[in-house]
Amino acid sequence: MRARFAGRTDAGVHATGQVAVLELPRRWSAGELQRALNARLPAAIAVLAVAEAPAGFDPRRRALWRRYRYRVWNAPVRSPLLLRTAWHVRYALDAGAMRRAAALLVGEHDFASFAAPLKQPNAATVRTMEEAAVAGEGRLLRFEFRANAFLPHQVRRMVGALVELGRGKLSEQQIEAWLRQPQPGAAGPAAPPQGLCLVDVAYAELRFEAGEDA
What is the Cα gyration radius of the chain? Predict the structure, then answer.
């Protein structure tokens, strides 16, 4: 039984809303299938909800949008409880400057500057960013991004560039220049993977049902 996924994630990246499609030999109710899968999956993975998809459904190509969240622990001393789920940045960051710069990313842009080298050099690099925001919870910062699709390492490179800007090492003008005149792979550096999480993926065709274990 082979699963197809809504998106690929790098080693160390997390997901609370990953979507997988399975072709099964018989029909199951949402609750039955959820319980059966969770009984066999390792403890680090759980099925939260189930939906019936049309035959041949491609969870990657049919997605309306994807939302990613990146967390930064901005403090002089690391947080042992957040080592696996946030990037520890010791330097003071200007959250207001990062919010203003994040707003520049909203809209339809060529994000080649924020992508890792592509396997297909001529692949399209234009994406529509519907949301790009920076929010703070004390020393814990959240970078939120929602777009129709993302390029490889795009979110991590956007966060890396925004953190450099928050440190005063990068200007808004440079972000604008990378969007206006793309330079493949120029933006960054890429933030480490552990702070990144795929939060959710939206579809027009699917209505997920939470089983008894949700």
Answer: 19
How many helices and strands in the chain, by DSSP H and E?
4, 9
List the CATH code of the domain at 65-199.
Answer: 3.30.70.660
Catalytic center residues: 10
Domains of the chain, by residue range, sit at 65-199
Amino acid at 115: A
Residue type, 57: F
Taking a C-beta distance cutoff of 8 angstroms, is the pair 71, 86 a contact?
A: yes
Residue 210: predicted pLDDT: 59
Q: What is the dihedral of CA 14, 78, 189, 135, to 10 degrees?
A: 70
In the block, residue with structure tokens 């039984």: 1
| Tokens 């090492």 belong to residue | 169
Give me the average pLDDT of each 10-residue run along the chain (214 residues): 74 88 84 90 90 84 93 97 97 96 98 88 92 92 97 96 97 97 93 96 80 47
The amino acid at residue 191 is A
Cα angle for residues 35, 37, 40 (degrees, 5° grid):
110
Positive or negative CA dihedral for 118, 119, 123, 126? negative
